[in-house]
TrEMBL record:
The lineage of its organism: Eukaryota, Sar, Alveolata, Perkinsozoa, Perkinsea. The gene is ATXN3_3. Residues 13-49 form the UBX domain. This is Ataxin 3. InterPro entries: Ubiquitin-like_domsf (IPR029071), UBX_dom (IPR001012). It comes from Perkinsus olseni. It comes from the Eukaryota.
Length: 125
């Protein structure tokens, strides 16, 4: 499996930047900065798939490669409308929001409900 490495992270001091922390089923966490305006949901999910491949090289297979799954979910923490569940199908690279059929992989993170500062998401396999 070959997944391209993600682009460089934006500067922490840049405008409209968020740090996303992904909590894995194993308890481990992945963290990376994203631009709310130029990075998309597709960028977030592609980075997670790349990170799962990198971890598989050193972690001894504690978690499956995300690209080997039929699909997986990411739950964005928050209250009310800011709490969202996104579904990814790696084979097609399509992303949908729970309960909706519209494909949203090209949606900027800011439009997907992510905010400046820090965001926590939970990876559900």
């Amino acid at each position: 499996v070959k997944i391209p490495a993600p682009a460089d992270e934006p500067a922490a001091s840049g405008p409209r930047v968020t740090t996303v922390q992904v909590r894995l089923p194993t308890g481990k966490r992945w963290t990376r900065r994203f631009s709310l305006d130029t990075n998309t949901l597709g960028d977030l999910f592609s980075w997670m798939e790349w990170q799962s491949l990198e971890d598989s090289k050193t972690a001894g297979g504690q978690m499956p490669l995300l690209t080997s799954l039929a699909g997986y979910d990411v739950l964005k923490q928050g209250f009310g409308p800011s709490r969202r569940k996104f579904h990814r199908v790696p084979a097609t690279q399509k992303i949908t929001q729970s309960g909706e059929a519209t494909e949203i992989e090209c949606t900027p993170l800011g439009e997907a409900g992510f905010e400046t500062g820090q965001e926590a998401v939970i990876l559900q396999l």
